[in-house]
Amino acid sequence: MPTNMTRETDVDVLIIGAGPAGLFASNALARAGVNVKVIDKRPVKIAAGQADGIQPRTIEVLQSYGLADRLLKEGTQLHLASLSCSMGVQAFYNPSPKGGIELTERTPDTMAPTARYPFEVTLHQGAIESLFLDSMSEHDVRVARPYVPTSIELSNNEAELKDPQARPVKVVLKNLAPLDNEPDTEIVRAKFVIGADGAHSWVRKALGITMEGEQTDYIWGVVDMIPETNFPDIRNKSAVHSENGSCMIIPREGDGVRFYIQLSEKDGGVDLATGRVDKSRIGPRKILEVARKTIAPYTIETPESFEWWTIYIIGQRVASKFSVDERIFIVGDACHTHSPKAGQGMNASMNDSHNLVWKMAHVLRGWADISLLKTYELERQKYANDLIDFDREFAKKFSDKPKTEGSEDGVSHEEFKKTFQKFGLFSSGIGVHYAPSSVVSPTYQSAASGLPIGQRVLPQMFLRAADGRPFEIQDVLPSDTRFKVLVFTGDTSDPEQLLKVNDVAEGLKRVLQLYAPGRDVVKMFDVLTFSAAVKERVMYNAVPPLLRAHWTKVFTDDMDTVGKLAGGGYEYYGIDKKEGAVVVVRPDGYVGTAAPLSHVSDLEGYFAGFMTKAKVHAALNGINGTNGIN
Amino acid sequence: MPTNMTRETDVDVLIIGAGPAGLFASNALARAGVNVKVIDKRPVKIAAGQADGIQPRTIEVLQSYGLADRLLKEGTQLHLASLSCSMGVQAFYNPSPKGGIELTERTPDTMAPTARYPFEVTLHQGAIESLFLDSMSEHDVRVARPYVPTSIELSNNEAELKDPQARPVKVVLKNLAPLDNEPDTEIVRAKFVIGADGAHSWVRKALGITMEGEQTDYIWGVVDMIPETNFPDIRNKSAVHSENGSCMIIPREGDGVRFYIQLSEKDGGVDLATGRVDKSRIGPRKILEVARKTIAPYTIETPESFEWWTIYIIGQRVASKFSVDERIFIVGDACHTHSPKAGQGMNASMNDSHNLVWKMAHVLRGWADISLLKTYELERQKYANDLIDFDREFAKKFSDKPKTEGSEDGVSHEEFKKTFQKFGLFSSGIGVHYAPSSVVSPTYQSAASGLPIGQRVLPQMFLRAADGRPFEIQDVLPSDTRFKVLVFTGDTSDPEQLLKVNDVAEGLKRVLQLYAPGRDVVKMFDVLTFSAAVKERVMYNAVPPLLRAHWTKVFTDDMDTVGKLAGGGYEYYGIDKKEGAVVVVRPDGYVGTAAPLSHVSDLEGYFAGFMTKAKVHAALNGINGTNGIN
């Protein structure tokens, strides 16, 4: 039996909660060489059910961490018209004049034409978590479980709060199942804490952060099962809007399918006195019974077993703030809750962490001022508010009765579809556009007019100059915490242009060396060159050394041999081949700023807004954990 | 110390030699559930050097066994103009009027437009072998080493030779390093033996099979190294033809490069008395010295170490026969030797095994008559002869002096390039066209005029009907030893066409059940449906059950959402949307035969040519090791 022992631990970052948001952050920080500790109250990770939709932008983000291959292999891909509308609905069913429902439309139009992965993926949350757990374990980071926090304190010493190397947060943890001779209490002193502990976040409550918004009265049931049915769109994401209720059908791994079914109070499942859901009052068979009426005349057998099921009432709320003194942060469901049907939850959560971790790594290394962390709330709270607005409109339309001959004031198919389509770009994640801030400076937007500053870098294929191999630009911008400096040189096979490029390299070197520790530019910046020379004439080794730290760093904008993949990048990005451009991409893949080649020295102003000059951080004991990428 | 003990072992197939050809066969047979034993004389597998070029068709073949992902990840891809010519040369350098060499041309035209992977991959032989070794180990098959065969005997009992379940081959093996108490001699009785023991094949010699053709007097040196050079095409496959000799540059994994350098007798390396190469007379530094003169004015530093090197004289020979009584076979270098520069060796070798293994599996299971195995020599010996013809012309042009002002009778760049291009389709592997035989029946070629019978199935994307996900057709035709029956139904959303399809399914079922063990069609045949309905109207569950053993088996010929990948398949394959077609694809991915829907019953004649009717093999103790694919 354990006695009352206490352990004391110092960490850089403590992460509370090992769901998708917490594990995303743990993995990204571990890869960046940051000393991280992650705890979770569950004794083991979840095995089935829960969130499962991965949107196109999230696939791009996971790919930037090298995790998309496995996701795509294990998950189910929803294609057809997956980007035509908000939730990638592929088939719409509505009341038929003959009674029951009928296929109104499959939607082939594309609303998010720039998506690199023009589809959505479903994979259960446990499998998504495994992606991160396996990747983290390569860096020897594992989840400590079952642990709960019992107190959290933040120092009010100004000097300490300003010093990124100080550990101003003290968290007391309780080990719920200590082994013999293992302490049941652990005191953790952390530089930063991330609360990723879900909708009922202990961290949020301990800090007194309020949730703003309200509970709806929409009740939904969810069942995961392998269906025996003659419904022809069972392998498409389908929205069924019938006179007997609404449901959504979402294909899953293997032969599995998830049904989201709208329930009414009479179906049970809600304690009418408290307004809370009560799983003892209903079961998956009952929920499926409701679905059966909705999809008639199509039939569906009751399976021998259900893989997972739940019921819920939609809450639509956003936290009043996302951080305390840029030392304690909340991410994921801890700061926004909304309808799970929209398939946004896990995506928004992981993208919160994606936004936060590189900033934290830069501050920890002494490369950036701690104020950089203010941009996390700025960027992600606005996103969460937009998400709730979207969800509110969406949930209402979905719950309303359809318009039929007998119910003229119902929602028509056209209105319904319009709502779905309205938020197409938004819900695919590819429309995210961060507002101007210290890390988003659109002054010279015209230098690359097709590459919106504040948005993620648009997918585009370029040829590697040395060997003509086509590369997706996103794949040469991995999430390795380095800023990427993309030098669009124009045609380097033109001797006059090459002279200009030599000058640009000098100017750029001067700027980057101001910030790079030990003047070692590649540690902090990945400089990539994009020539406009044709592949028959481009010489990768003609550009100045700063622009080719390795032969793999030089690309050219020309068609590949097959002529289908690459070419036209300058035009697509709105870059003039004479003027050229330097485009700075943040470590999370969003365009930070740009300048024409002639104004390369103006980039100093951008970096000065949040970076620490090299001589300053030379004095600090910063971490240096960049992963060199070749 | 081991005593003279003897072990006796019964196996279905004994494979002698664990190079690429032997391991390919081992892995494919192991996956097919065949009892296989593989031995090699080397105590450990090779680590570096040797063969390393993987051609486009071979990538397709490896993909059909699920091995291409890793190949593409680990290997170096040669793009640019990799299909423009015989060896995928990307850059040609020739004598410059200013002295030294200069870039004459990079070749952007494509000669093999149908390649699914329009590039070549280099990866050292040891890594290729690991692909197979790791895959085999999943089926608990490992290489026994170091073992050599000491005798081989084939029974002359006619009845035994005809019975596929008999073990008429007796091979005595010697264990060169037996552990304590392990026998040093093993007597193996096998149904079949595959000799994959290289250019100096013991199996071939033991059987008295002669090699036809001759030794050339071209001497070549090879060095693998990481170069420090200013040669601008060092990351492209380059052919340098200078007044000081010829060389080829082939990029390899990481920063590595292989140089093939033509040597003259005065450079050393050959014992002039015997005409044999002698590695004690030359070294990699000396070989590089010759290369240095060839590529001047470009420079190259001598590295601290070389990864691998060798010298050789080209021999161009083909074995007089490839099998003895369809019981003992030789594959790979054991039956054909040629210039390694052409990068064909490993490809031809693996494709020999690919051709042989499914036939062997069918005979072992009692599904096919043993005479099916005669088609191995028929198909692969012809290929080998074509390969030698190609190599002869190629090697000569490469070794000849270039045409310059001072040497008007030399080979001009145009002639040189023409030779390279002439065999483009051939050397990429995608032009292989097997002649009519019991397994290649082009009677109804007109039913699918764009899909040549005897060639591999042309890559084309189709949408999966149930969920609109695009699939490359080659990916739904895995090398699982089953025949694939592709039913091109026409537009199944047209009720009249659907009626016709119902009849076709009845006729097809009758034919397939004649051969399928236990009338279980899917064990032996994978029936796949390709509708011509638009994705908005296709209903995967409208086609008769034989045509949809699972929802994943129905496809449709329409554009994907992005509109770039799929669509136009009927037109490309030359199939009329009313007439439709049934296309039978051999287990190795080559089109076996075809028929219009109206003549589906004629397929009986094709299968009758080599298959055993179900009641016959019901009486046999056949293996049943098909891997069900969903």
From TrEMBL, chains A, B:
It comes from the Eukaryota. Residues 432-614 form the Phenol hydroxylase-like C-terminal dimerisation domain. The keyword Isomerase does not apply. The keyword Flavoprotein applies. GO terms for molecular function: FAD binding; oxidoreductase activity, acting on paired donors, with incorporation or reduction of molecular oxygen, NAD(P)H as one donor, and incorporation of one atom of oxygen. Coiled coil: none annotated. Keywords: FAD, Flavoprotein, Oxidoreductase. InterPro entries: FAD-bd (IPR002938), FAD/NAD-bd_sf (IPR036188), Phe_hydrox_C_dim_dom (IPR012941), PHOX_C_sf (IPR038220), RIFMO-like (IPR050641), Thioredoxin-like_sf (IPR036249). Belongs to the PheA/TfdB FAD monooxygenase family. PANTHER family: 2-MONOOXYGENASE, PUTATIVE (AFU_ORTHOLOGUE AFUA_1G13660)-RELATED (PTHR43004:SF20), TRK SYSTEM POTASSIUM UPTAKE PROTEIN (PTHR43004). This is Phenol 2-monooxygenase.
